[in-house]
Amino acid sequence: MRRRRTPTAMDGSILDSLGQEIVGVMSPVSICMLLVVLLVSCLSPLPSSIDSPSSTPVTAATLVYLESPSDPPAKKLAGALLNAAVFVVLVAAVTFLLVILYYYNFTGFLKAYMRFSAFFVLASMGGSILFSLFRRFSLSLDAPSAILLLLNFSVIGVLSIFSPAVPIVVRQSYMVALAIIVAAWFTKLPEWTTWTLLLALAAYDLAAVLCPRGPLRILVDLASSRDEELPALVYEARPTASNHSVSSSPFPAASVELQPQYPVNLNPNANPNSEPSPNSSSNDSSPGPNQADDSVVEIESLAEETLPLVPAATSITQLGSTHGDPISSVEQDDIFETSRGIRLGLGDFVFYSVLVGRAAMFDLMTVYACYLAIISGLGCTLILLSICRHALPALPISITLGVVFYFLTRLVMEPFVVGASTSLIMF
Asked: What does pTM read for this prediction?
């Protein structure tokens, strides 16, 4: 039986029910942005060579136009728009290819490709950043030790990300490390290309998640219909339980579905090993082993969970009252709920960090403004998620606020504060 759950007086407010989940998502996002800012501050070149063609890597985001500091603003804007359009088209094509492969059950190939991608990012891109840090701080390490260290780090990272047997903290740490490495590479893009690319990706994320035929929407619908985990890298916050819920496993699988729920006796004085009375009816509150499957009432089974931001699914276990009498369906809804942690796509970590990393190339005041804007946008998205009860993209609000606050701080607030400080004006 499937139906909507009616709110009752036992339900807390939105912030009470999502407080721990919000902290569980914002904490790794903040750590990721902080470490990217530190990396950019340590490894950024001289200001005169930040946007020079020699220091800009040729990537999928710079295939059409390679920005030069001597170019006029109109040319920079046109070239940046072309770069963003080409990059978004490539991302959409790869996503649709992913959907096609998953539709025809090439899950083994997709898992192998994700493992190879994670190993490549950790070994090659992460190794390059590690060696840059060694050169920056004049550290010495022989080649065999460096290769052995890098291989161990990469292999353990791949096993930790894709194996459910490792502690969830280790898996979360490697997911954040992946996002830091990719974001550090994206901060090497030219300035105009970076801002147009961020806005273009926010618009694409909005369409891919909310449109009925969006690629991410189709991918999640397929995964939900097959009761399988999504073939993607997704950060999952540690699941939490409310005061009226049964806690789930501390080491959840990567699937977006619920953990199996088990019946719990409501009578604290009852013996868990006692047998039911022969006078009890078929509607008694203590279902036998063969009746457990028939005593589950699913409520709001959300099948539209997507990669960027996934709400917690809920389920209820139908149980009897403390005296063995059958209880109403409305009372059953208020007894137990189990929720999984909120899931956030790894791309959201990357592009949040790219924004603050680019701001770190200007000054720390801009970094603070962008960070507060991104966290505020993520908080608004999480609150909307709890109200709408369906999947929402995590990029549009945060990226839009971050870009707006970046330019407001850089063009308005920073000149005002610096001018007031140099004139010894205090407020």
From this structure: 0.73
Of the residues 11, 294, 334, 348, which is catalytic? 348
What's the length of the chain? 427
Rounded distance between C-alpha atoms, residue 401 and residue 393, angstroms: 14
From residue 70, alpha-carbon distances to 24, 49, 74, 175, 417 in Å are 45, 12, 12, 39, 29
Average pLDDT of adjacent 10-residue blocks, the chain of 427 residues: 46 55 86 94 66 62 83 91 93 92 89 92 92 88 90 94 88 93 91 93 91 84 79 71 37 31 41 46 43 36 40 36 41 39 85 94 91 93 82 90 94 84 74
Q: Is 333 a catalytic residue?
A: no
Q: How far apart are CA 218 and CA 203, in angstroms?
A: 18
pLDDT of 45 reads: 66
Residue with tokens 């390059």: 128
Q: Which of 209, 210, 393, 390 is nearest to 300 (CA)?
A: 390
Query: What angle (nearest 5°) sits at the alpha carbon of residue 111, between those of residues 240 and 167?
Result: 35
Buried b (16+ CB within 10 A) or exposed e, 97-130: ebbeebeeeeeeebeeebeeebbebbbeebbebb
For 257-275, letters b (16+ CB in 10 Å) and e give bbbebebeebeeeeeeeee
The alpha carbon of 324 is separated from its chain's Cα centroid by a whole number of angstroms, namely: 44
Q: Is 348 a catalytic residue?
A: yes
The CA distance from 382 to 277, in Å, is 47
CA distances from 368 to 103, 111, 202, 364 (A): 43, 38, 21, 6
Residues 6+ apart with CB under 8 A from 401: 373, 374, 376, 377
Domain-wise residue ranges, the chain: 20-44+63-239+339-423
**Given 11, 16, 205, 293, the catalytic residue:** 205
d(CA 112, CA 119): 11
